[in-house]
Amino acid sequence: MLFDSLQIGHLHLRNRIVMSAINLGYAQNGEVNQRHIDLYSARSRGGAGLIMIGGTAIEPTGTTGGFLSLHADHLIEGHQALTAAIKKEGASVGVQLFQAGRYSAAYREGKDVFAPSAIASKLTKQTPRELST
């Protein structure tokens, strides 16, 4: 059953093996680079049916810590190259969208940290700016 193909709506998976999302810490300024392409292509070539691209920020402060990002149009081309490389080797692709909230380390770079509530992070000891309604 693990090696059987699977149809989910319009998505066809060659098997049921999924590489779960992880933050590799490879990105600079949220940009896809060759190291990402090489790693994910190898996982696709190795037989994964679905590869989840991990920790992809939805706003600029989320790029702290080597996270990929999709917060601006100039980042799309890199994601297109990454997706094409993975698909070329036979796997389908998904993405884990990410926003660190109060756990963001963006304060280290002088960036504003925000979250739903102004509750200090036990991890960073920083109190984020509370989002408005």
Describe this structure in words.
The chain is built from two helices and eight strands, in the order E-E-E-H-E-E-H-E-E-E. It is α/β, with parallel strands linked by helices and 133 residues long. Strands 3, 4, 5 and 6 form a four-stranded parallel β-sheet that branches. A two-stranded antiparallel ribbon has the order 1-2. Strands 7-8 form a two-stranded parallel sheet. The radius of gyration is 17 Å and the shape is elongated.
Question: What labels describe this entry?
Answer:
133 residues; alpha/beta; 4-stranded parallel beta sheet; two-stranded antiparallel sheet; 2 helices
Distance between the termini: 47 Å
Query: Order of SSEs, N→C?
Result: EEEHEEHEEE
Uncertain regions: pLDDT < 50 for 5+ in a row?
none
Main beta sheet, described?
4 strands, parallel
Measured on Cα atoms, how large is the radius of gyration?
Answer: 17 Å
Helix content: 10-25%
